[in-house]
Structures are given as C-alpha cells and as structure tokens.
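re: ur question from earlier - yeah i can do the single chain one, its not a big deal. heres the input i used so u can compare w yours
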Amino acid sequence: FESRGFGVCSVAMQGDLHRAWAALLREPRTRPDVGSVVPGARLRGLLDGDMDGVIALYAEVFGKEPQFCPFGAEPAYHERLRRRHAGEERGVHFVIEVDGQIRGLLGGWIREKDVHMPPKSVGMDLLLGEELRGKGISWVGYRRVVEGAVPLGAVWIKGTTGQPGVMHIARAMGRVTVGVDLSRDAAFPAGW
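and the output i got, formated as tokens:
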C-alpha cells in the first residue's frame, strides 16, 4: 500500500475492560488531580451547556490536525455530537476547563449491543487542546472513564487513534491493535 501512496492514519485497539481497569488502578500516573498537573485546570462532568465549548475545541483541534480525524472539524459531525450528548446514547463524559474554557474532552460511549464485541463495550473519546498534551492528563482521563464504564456493564474497551501517546496508554491497559485505517495523508511515519 505504501507504493501506492497510502500510509497508516490510525489504528483500532480493543481489550477487556476489567483488565484495563486493573492496569489503571496500578498506574501511579492516574492518581493526580488535573489541577496539580496543569495549574488552573479542573476536570468535571460534562454538562448540557458545555456543547458549544466542546464543538469549538473539535473545530480548533481537527482544523489544525485533520490527519487525526478528517471529519472532526465538519459541521455535520458537530451536529452528530450534539445529538449524542443530548441523550441518544449513554456514556461517561468529562471536560477539562482551564480559566473557564473547555480545553479537553474525555469520554466513553456505551455501546449496548456491540456487533464486534458483545455484549457491551465502551468506545473512547479523548480530545485535548495543545496546552494540555504531554502532561499525563490522558492517564487520569482514562481512569475516570473506565471507572464510570464498569458499573454500566461494559465488558470491552475500544477506540481508534493516530496518536502514539494514546497507543502507549492503550497497550498499558492490555488493549491490542485489531485494525488499521489507511489514507494518503498518513499520520504515522512510514514503517511504523
């Protein structure tokens, strides 16, 4: 595929949710409060009035980095997000506020009837503004989301990413790569 100009733009990773939970409980990077990592930051549950800030973050991040989610800055996708958060699907969602602005989204959608991984799975959403990246916040977010997904009956955890740091966390939770997405605008270097 590389000879035809294609490369890997993201990988799909999945694993057992209870194994992931056990791994996160042992991981010291999941314990700090977000505010101790980034001064002025606060992790809290997603509220109904947060969607404008969440949509603005999607537009900002994926407008600059479309290789990680080609449709992430599209208005049609933003409307889908609004419908999902309005209650069409269950989940566990948090935002990170910095100085009153939403700068992160950490969430998991509960798939009640997962065709690939029955009976239930949680699909992860992780979106951080540039100033929050590389500080270990993803570890804290994964712990919070998995902690909330376990009592909702999810058995599997899955998601796709083009970010090496997220892949590292997924592997630490026992998730394995089960698929790849190809694109001419590959996020991964050749031969990854």
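The beta strands are 7-16, 41-45, 91-98, 101-111, 121-128, 156-161, 176-183. not sure if urs matches, ping me
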